[in-house]
């Protein structure tokens, strides 16, 4: 087995680990439900256990470092998980320090949306571009920006909080307290909420049949729209308009070569795309209208391979990619790194 | 006289030229009304005439290059002014080629908002920071973003078109065709329009007395608010709320160390600032709330000194600044460059 990075994608629901090759190929993968309510020590214990499992089962792997991603806010330079709303008891956890001491390997940390942006840029829908905006639309809306061949970080790594860009004065109040956030009107959650309000339990609608008369989710809306259901089609149309307004802002603000849409709602990209495009053509200034909007290619691998690339790759696409040089990478690798 | 850059700030109303030293000091300055309706050849003729005037009157200056800024859209890398709405007959004008052939000097081009951002960052309100967003609020709203010590350009240099970021669903249609653009609700023009609608000729209001019963401008509103006029104060309050919403977006999207507000409306910065601040405190996520919002310091010099810095400076503040090395700069300078 060739040189690999140990990669972790720490989510509020699932903790994923993998061994990833330089090519972006995932050669081994493990996951388990995150003990999200149990505090940082318990979850770090899970990470260590999964790491050891991967290393034990792949004893020939030459592991040169650990790339991890976690929900923001986090400080990628300092290596600190500041306080993600989905992980109880995580306050300024120095994850890089903890993992590098534990494993004696170089560790890099990035927020999950930035890692997914890196993954799609280096190995997915953004291959060959110099800049892109990655937008993940699911429960919330997050994003990562690659510009001039690098993640755009800003102060404390906090740039590209695109879910909390105000795009309207209407709609439900966002969990952040403001009205009109992109996320509050255009996330999968917002779409499900609109569908739930538009229907009622027992009304016989396709949406409520799919949801078994429970709350309707974005997934049900996409499923119903695929069968031609008129209510679902209208909901998809309205959703795509909001996405188009938000994407137009991203074009005007970041001027990327490409927008890549990921997250759960990307499953309905083909249905959403025509109205997203029409909204951009209507609202964007002419010079921005020819920028492609494409679906993500890597699914839930994007964060893992992006995190791994923090260890495996440095440099820019289209130019010579140089390996990250670490003193630690010159040791004998996996066997030495395994800890109990 | 020391080494200088010849700088031009080509506006739709005024054409400004200057000789600027490495320190940012403007050692000579000329200006005249732009022949904005006369096409590119006439205006380039004005630039050449002003350049020769500056060179003639400062024959000891050692001019090492020309830094110019012009309204967008323009392509800074290719050196092409694409088609600014305020300059008739400018379509894909290769300004760098034209001026470098004319003067035999290196020429650099940047859009006016980016040049002003560079000026404020290197010599004004942003000295010592690594990142800032410069926002100019006057007839329209424009901006420039400095990140990691560089102007954030994006594809074709088109990033930071912040005036056309949608922030609401209400208000007058923007000249770009969309509803809800930051510029359409928060520019000086929008403020003047609201003041004009709220009053009527002959109503005896302070605003109409200041405007001599003509249309009320943003300048009149600021002037009246300074005297405590209640209507003007309310207008300033509403204006500051819109600015606060837009600035919150800029914090979430770019995460700068600083926002610098320039343009005509910056004259009322002290009146606007408390409500801008309160709006940010209400809407921004906690991690962004401590970012200072400050007024620009350089006034109408910002674009000139920023354009000059494209020639005079390379590198980042706080680190060693290296001079741009040009073969041409090693010649004897001004006398050789002067043309008829």
Q: How is this structure best described in words?
A:
The structure is a homodimer of 340-residue chains. Chain A is of the alpha/beta class and 340 residues long. Chain A folds into 2 domains: 3-111 and 317-337, Nucleotidyltransferase, domain 5; 125-295, ATPase, nucleotide binding domain (Nucleotidyltransferase, domain 5), CATH 3.30.420.40. Chain A is built from 11 helices and 12 strands. The first copy, chain A, has helices spanning 40-57, 95-103, 112-123, 182-186, 188-198, 206-210, 218-226, 230-254, 269-283, 302-312, 334-337, and strands at 3-10, 14-21, 26-33, 62-70, 74-75, 80-81, 107-111, 132-137, 141-147, 150-151, 259-262, 293-295. In chain A, the strands form 3 sheets. A 5-stranded mixed beta sheet of chain A has the order 3-2-1-4-7, sandwiched between helices. In chain A, strands 10-9-8-11-12 form a 5-stranded mixed beta sheet, sandwiched between helices. Chain A has a two-stranded antiparallel sheet with strand order 5-6. In chain A, β8 (132-137) and β9 form a beta hairpin. In chain A, α5 packs across α7 (218-226) and α5 (188-198) packs antiparallel against α8 (230-254). The longest helix of chain A is centred in the C-terminal third of the chain and has 25 residues, at 230-254. The first copy, chain A, is globular. Chain A starts with a strand and ends with a helix. The interface between A and B is large, with 42 and 42 residues.
Quick summary:
Two copies of one chain form a homodimer. With 340 residues, chain A is α/β, with parallel strands linked by helices. Chain A has two domains: 3-111 and 317-337, 2-Layer Sandwich (Nucleotidyltransferase, domain 5), CATH 3.30.420; 125-295, Nucleotidyltransferase, domain 5 (2-Layer Sandwich), CATH 3.30.420.
């Amino acid at each position: 087995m060739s040189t690999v990075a140990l990669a972790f994608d720490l989510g509020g629901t699932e903790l994923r680990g993998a061994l990833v090759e330089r090519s972006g190929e995932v050669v081994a993968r493990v996951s388990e439900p995150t003990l999200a309510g149990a505090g940082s020590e318990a979850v770090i214990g899970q990470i260590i256990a999964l790491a050891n499992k991967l290393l034990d089962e792949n004893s020939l792997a030459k592991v040169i470092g650990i790339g991890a991603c976690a929900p923001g806010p986090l400080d990628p330079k300092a290596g600190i998980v500041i306080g993600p709303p989905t992980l109880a008891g995580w306050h300024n956890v120095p994850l890089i320090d903890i993992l590098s001491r534990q494993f004696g390997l170089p560790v890099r940390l990035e927020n999950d949306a930035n890692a997914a942006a890196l993954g799609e840029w280096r190995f997915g829908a953004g291959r060959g571009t110099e800049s892109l905006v990655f937008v993940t639309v699911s429960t919330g809306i997050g994003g990562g920006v690659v510009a001039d061949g690098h993640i755009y970080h800003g102060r404390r790594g906090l740039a590209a909080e695109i879910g909390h860009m105000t795009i309207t004065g209407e709609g439900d109040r966002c969990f952040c307290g403001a009205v009109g956030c992109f996320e509050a009107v255009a996330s999968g959650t917002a779409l499900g909420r609109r569908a739930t309000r538009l229907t009622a339990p027992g009304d016989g609608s396709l949406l409520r049949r799919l949801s078994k008369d429970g709350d309707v989710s974005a997934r049900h809306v996409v499923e119903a729209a695929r069968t031609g259901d008129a209510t679902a089609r209208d909901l998809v149309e309205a959703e795509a308009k909001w996405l188009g307004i938000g994407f137009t802002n991203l074009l005007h603000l970041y001027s990327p070569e490409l927008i890549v849409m990921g997250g759960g709602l990307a499953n309905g990209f083909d249905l959403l795309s025509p109205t997203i495009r029409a909204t951009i053509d209507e609202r964007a200034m002419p010079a921005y209208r020819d920028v492609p909007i494409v679906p993500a290619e890597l699914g839930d691998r994007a964060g893992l391979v992006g995190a791994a690339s923090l260890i495996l790759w440095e440099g820019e696409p289209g130019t010579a990619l140089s390996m990250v040089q670490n003193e630690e990478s010159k040791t004998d690798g996996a066997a030495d790194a395994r800890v109990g």
